[in-house]
């Protein structure tokens, strides 16, 4: 018994703040959230048990829920591949044959640091507005622009562009990954007369697969969680015509505008399950296309 | 002279000829490629920072020029956008900056203390359940904030903390952001274990080792964590939006949002001016600590 304490005391003392946080800010809330998702709860009176009522309403009647899913999936489907492609492309340009990459790297990374801020969201609203700078550039080449944000058909792509603009952080991770690929592989391929494209397909992609996989999982999760930019650009409502009704924006409004806390909890759980499913899918399929070098036998 | 040697070798030996040809071809191609690359990267750089330049330019332009003129250089510099923008809202930006500073400084301290504690336990101490809890910690990193949002709100409401800074600050003292723990664990693991063992033989307690061995050797990791948490807390919008109702206690991001609520068409210059100012702290830290930031991402592989 004494030995047990001697072995464990120090560890748990240092872990205490995290443990408290874990139980009160993560595990507890997840369970409470699950319970609330089966209730109707307006924060004034106590929660009323409603069984599967919230979920049934959500899947059978709630058009805005389906709209929010559509908007969010569209955003994920466009922004994640585009952002990763930009990140990988630029990382490969920076990786080889340039001596001074510091300045470029800094400039490309900067938007990732600023992109989540309100200031940038406000800027985006005005840049893509009817009189915004985007239309002025288009006018120079003879194209008549429109209010990209006020048009429900295009509004979401302004946020996709904003997401692409922030390709800097996955770019840095790709750069670190590219550094890890042995140079002699390329030299050997060069001597064999392998084309650049083939080198990319046969060397870079397979060697980088673990890093690509890692970035893909991380960026997909991040994309599902997008909130601030959509919230600011749509003025908190998901307008125009719910075309910017990101899932998180819908959830926020249900919870903190209409105080349907039970329903919002159900929405939150569905989001959690979607993200978990995507992560699981990525891990389950990874063995078909990700090969870790030290796994070779 | 030297070229002669190569030429002779090339004539004498077909293999050398091949090698030489490949090298020459490669060199020429590399040079052209490098030029093209630089050209492309310069253009891309311009596209990337153009929005920021436009923001700064618009913050200095007269109102009627912001949306009418593509050029970045204002016809006259309207510094009044800054001076008037500072006081354009019902409460002065002096108050908002003070609020943001309080929240940010306390949050950074909380993050550094609590996360380095947890990271030390995970990286260095042996105790039952360590791998189990480490796994849990990694899972919480994936957790969307929106899932815990409502119960947390109910909890803080019950505690009477809504409309105070406590819901923004206390979680940081409880190591709520797993990213920083992970970053520090990665770093702590690189510190040679012999140092701890030597200290332990000298009779140092685990706390002494943490304080006198691990922390001093981890200043780069601490710096990286401090900068990231500073920038993220400074830009944080959702939590203040939910927990702060009184304009007097607003942080800078909440204040900026008030500009679009009162959209009196004429305040764009002021809105942009205050937006620029809100980014200045981030920019300063980025320029000053760029190396730490970039290395931090490379070692943790995140964000």
UniProtKB/TrEMBL annotation, chain A:
Q: Where are the transmembrane segments?
A: 12-38, 71-94, 106-124, 156-178, 203-221, 227-252, 264-284
Q: Does the keyword Membrane apply?
A: yes
Cited Pfam families: BPD_transp_1 (PF00528)
The ABC transmembrane type-1 domain sits at: 69-282
Query: Where is it located?
Result: Cell membrane
Give the InterPro entries listed for this entry: ABC_transporter_permease, MetI-like, MetI-like_sf
SUPFAM superfamilies linked? MetI-like
Q: How does it sit in the membrane?
A: Multi-pass membrane protein
Q: What is its main location?
A: membrane
**Coiled coil ranges:** none
Q: Which family does it belong to?
A: Belongs to the binding-protein-dependent transport system permease family.
Q: What is this protein identified as?
A: Carbohydrate ABC transporter membrane protein 1, CUT1 family
Species of origin: Pseudooceanicola antarcticus
UniProtKB/TrEMBL annotation, chain B:
One biological process GO term for this chain? transmembrane transport
Main location per the UniProt record: membrane
Q: Where is the ABC transmembrane type-1 domain?
A: 97-289
- The question of whether Membrane is a record keyword is answered with yes
Its keywords, alphabetically, are: Cell membrane, Membrane, Transmembrane, Transmembrane helix, Transport
PANTHER family, alphabetized: ABC TRANSPORTER PERMEASE PROTEIN MG189-RELATED-RELATED, ABC TRANSPORTER PERMEASE PROTEIN YESQ-RELATED
* Family as reported in the entry's similarity comment: Belongs to the binding-protein-dependent transport system permease family.
Name under which the protein is recorded: Carbohydrate ABC transporter membrane protein 2, CUT1 family
